[in-house]
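TA notes, week 10

Several of you asked for a full example with nothing omitted. So below is the full record: structure tokens for the whole chain, then the designed sequence directly under it. When grading your own attempts, check the secondary structure regions first.
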């Protein structure tokens, strides 16, 4: 389960990085390069709004994934308890019933 969160966080980070690099606060960047194309579809203002909202969305997704992944990571104390129980079961004589 931890691997699923790790993959999702990495994918969200890559998408967030792309969204941040595409934007430019002064109207340049790739959003400015596509201004002719975007003007025909939704206008320059809408393009920057979409990029900004996408940036916030993926930042929130990363934060939520990081916070919720803590619930699915096994804690070291649980592992130690499980190891101790396994060792006790292995050391019990064969004639005795195991708990």
């Amino acid at each position: 389960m931890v691997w699923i969160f790790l993959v999702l966080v990495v994918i969200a980070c890559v998408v967030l990085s792309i969204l941040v690099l595409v934007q430019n606060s002064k109207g340049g960047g790739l959003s400015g390069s596509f201004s002719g194309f975007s003007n025909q579809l939704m206008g320059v203002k809408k393009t920057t709004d979409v990029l900004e909202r996408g940036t916030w969305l993926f930042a929130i997704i990363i934060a939520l994934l990081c916070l919720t992944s803590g619930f699915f990571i096994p804690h070291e104390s649980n592992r130690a308890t499980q190891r101790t129980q396994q060792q006790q079961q292995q050391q019990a004589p064969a004639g005795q019933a195991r708990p």
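DSSP finds five helices and no strands in the chain. Use that as a sanity check on your answer.
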